[in-house]
Amino acid sequence: MSSAALELRPGVWGRLPVWLRAIVLGLSIGLIAANVWPVFLVKLGMPLGALAEAVFLAVYVWWASGRGWPRATSATRRSAFRTGSLSRAQWIWGLIAAFSIAAGVHASLVVLFRIVPFPAVEFHRDYAFPVASLALKWVAIVVAAASAGICEETGFRGYMQQPLEGRYGAVVAILVSSFFFGLLHLSKSWDIGGMIPLVFFAGMLYGLLAWASNSLIPGMIGHTVMDIGMFSYWWTGVAGKFSARTIAETGIDGPFIVACVVLGFVLLTALSAIARLRVLRES
Fold first, then answer.
1. Are 212 and 277 in contact (CB under 8 A)?
2. What contacts 158, CB < 8 A, 6 or more positions away?
3. Which tens digits make up the pLDDT trace of 61-72?
4. Domain ranges in the chain?
């Protein structure tokens, strides 16, 4: 891709380097959209806020994938969104990779919090849904997860990473998008020391998935599934609470070994599926 791939119009913007335009657009497209949901939730409540967010996400995907105004940027938006069809085999391997990444993140958390105590107060601080009904809490969790999955994949693995791939190569592009993905989450109360490499590594895996498949859809699905688990379990306790003691107290026991084996297996599965996707794309 040439340096003009992100040029929206002649002038100052078009003369900026690709890396700067990609970072600015990726952050803008991803973060502004992702923060619409909290406003709907607080201002409209449930279930009206969830309905408004569903409509917003549909319009957001429609526009970000190259439709609508301005027509002059349609091709740029289509390219950044990685539009294009996936074959049946690509769908299968893409979903295997997406679900494996999601499972790997949760397995990583289990292993992490068997090594250090689970900081429940920090994890729950920012995620109290202002609804009393358990059913509506689950609706809010799913909508919040979909909002994060769709908007963050569009911003970081689409509008930021895709143009960087064309100009600087996949390695640089994935590292840059993962760095800013991790930087975004430094503001969270749950971002203790052990979470920093975990978030960065998750960003790299989703970056690899987008690069190998040249599609954002598997990553959006996997990211949403991952965040449903994060919101419902780790961040709110709606689905249960993590109460396992650290191995400093119990020693290296069977459940810890199982968690490590599961983590290794799902990560190997994810990387194998990503490698298969890349072969399918090149063929």
1. yes
2. 26, 29, 64, 80, 81, 82, 210, 216
3. 999 999 999 999
4. 12-282
